[in-house]
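Reply to dn_fold:

You asked what the input looked like. This is it:
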Amino acid sequence: MTSRTTLPAEWAPQSAVILTWPHPGTDWAGILDDVEPVFEAIAKAVLRFEHLIISCEFVARLQQLGQQLNVHAEAQGLPGRVLTVPAPANDTWTRDHGPITVCKGDGFSLLDFRFNAWGGKFPYEKDNALSRHLANAGVFGSHPMQAVDLVLEGGSIESDGAGTLLTTSECLLTPSRNPALDRTAIERQLSDLLGAERILWLNHGYLAGDDTDSHIDTLARFCAKDHICYVACPDVADEHYSALAAMEEELQEFRQADGSPYKLTPLPWPDAIHNQDGERLPATYANFLIINDAVLLPVYDVPQDSLAISVFGKLFPEREIIPINCRPLIHQHGSLHCVTMQVPAGVVTP
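and this is what came back:
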């Protein structure tokens, strides 16, 4: 008999969060002074509750970061410590190029899926090799890393920790990722690799400025096994209205494993934010990160931020809600959850 495989829910106890730090060789080069403070805010918030793994291509900057953040953690009496790994990177979207950790019986296995920059949209060779660099550096101890010949990004799947996955057909079935695999074959892979017993497919959902082909972590998220929060657009004149209304109807039709409907909470809709070229940017409160005893919530310096903080306080009453201004991140079409990847408790022990 083989041990059952499960993909932990994000609210399960964690040992660490992984960050791939921005550097002048990435698309952040022109706004490093704006974006590095966002990463620093995320790093310091994580260290209040758990450890942090940082990789960076620029070794001198990496060493400086490790020293500064560890001094900060020690001075503040924080439980987290920083592990640093020099590694080349094309970009900083750790959610998608980082490892996905599954439970197998009493142990863990880190899955190194192929990463092709959301269907070959950007250079990705360095990012595709980054998980192996982390494993070779020993940050995951003796826990094995398995190379998987399947293109899959962490932002494209949501797990309730009990065998149900939430995802979008727009992303997982796009031909630029796994052209030889149809929906049935994808479901078989998700079952074999992640222990998925049920897969809830959203066929609608859209966010302007999103490069990922509708990643689920920008649209709808599990906040408990029986509860999904989701992006909702109340403005009938907004380009998002029809697609998000159709997504809401799909969520209302979804059922839990016992046949009961999910609790559903719509999230506030932030005012439209555009870049200097007039392109609308993908601001979404759905791109939050759950960590031990806290939720890191992306905010965007818009009037709806205060309402979002209040909504999340009700969604996660036993966790501290820590807002982090992620307006600089959306200029490269992602947000807080996109730049992070959590690692379950028991895997990382500095």
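The chain has ten helices and 17 strands.
Hope that clears it up.
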